[in-house]
Amino acid sequence: MRNLIYVNMMRLKKNRIFRAGVAVSMAYVAFLLFMNYQEAADTPETVIRQLNWYFLSTLPVASAFCSVFCGMFLGTEYSDGTMRNKLMVGHTRKEIYIANLFTVYLANAFVYLSGCFVTAVMGTAMFGWNLANPMQLAFRMFSGILMLGAYAGVFTLLSMLIGNKAISATVCMVLYAAMFIGAPFLQTAVFSYYHGASLNHMPSESIRPLLEFLYDFLPVGQDLQISGIFIHLYRLPLYSVICIALTTVCGMAVFTKKDLK
Fold first, then answer.
1. How far is 24 from 29, CA to CA, in rounded Å?
2. 131: left (phi over 0), alpha (psi -120 to 50) or beta
3. Using CA atoms, how far apart are residues 236 and 215, in angstroms rounded to an integer?
4. CA-CA-CA-CA torsion for 216, 104, 16, 174, nearest 10 degrees?
């Protein structure tokens, strides 16, 4: 297992998509900080001076990165024959799956944490160490890192089961785009009940528990809650762990029986 992870780390260091993800994450936070700092002189009342928002702002960037990176990075193992070589030297399929999942998750987390590093350094220099409710921020960041693990579990499952690199990358990106587009509609449906006016197309109040469960369980719903308004923040880490466990168990079960041509 350690050898598999080590080899993946060596590939990760040279991977251009991973480097681009880190660069985009850092540049995105730097841009947000710079623009708010520039506006501080003209419209100080609209400037976000608390660092909480900046620490969470790169979670969507890391989520989108995972959908692009996972399909390309793991798909290469099929196209280059690396998968067969690993099996030939004695590694089990479960070891290969776990090592790949760990690598994708580590890359995902590193992209997010690189943005947090820029916030800590550049944000402190611009606005000071200005945090609101540090304990809740720490819990949101913890939930966000687990949420990235849920994304890694979903996209690793797809990438390991689809042998074609181009197809797996496309499927991952299309799935993320669909979830990203659909998440605001799910959020609107959930919060409509809290404002006492159910949407017309909702049959009754009885569907509310299902909508809330989907909003809490799906990574895109968690992303919206962690970065903004939440309803069940303390459920999210548990749902992320369940999602990681389910996708990993299902992925390994199918991958162990997959015919590797």
1. 9
2. beta
3. 10
4. -40
For residue 222, tell me if it sits in a domain.
Answer: yes
Residue 261 lies in a domain: no
> CA geometry: angle at 41 spanning 36 and 42, to 5°?
90
Say if 124 falls within a structural domain: yes
Nearest CA among 220, 187, 228 for reference residue 52: 228
32-72 pLDDT per residue, tens: 998 888 776 667 666 677 898 899 999 999 999 999 999 88
Q: Provide the angle, in degrees to the nearest 10, between the axes of the packed helices 134-161 and 219-227.
A: 160
Which tokens sit at 258?
């997959």
Locus of tokens 């994450």:
25
Q: Does residue 168 contact residue 255 with C-beta atoms inside 8 Å?
A: no
| Contact in structure between 40 and 128 (CB atoms under 8 Å) | no
Decide if 260 is inside a domain.
Answer: no
Ranges of beta strands (E only) in 35-182 are none
Domain span holding position 143: 2-255
Mean pLDDT by 10 residues, the chain (261 residues): 83 91 95 84 69 91 92 81 76 89 95 95 88 89 94 93 84 92 81 56 66 87 83 87 95 83 62
Alpha carbons 247 and 238: distance in angstroms, whole number: 14
Domains in the chain, number: 1
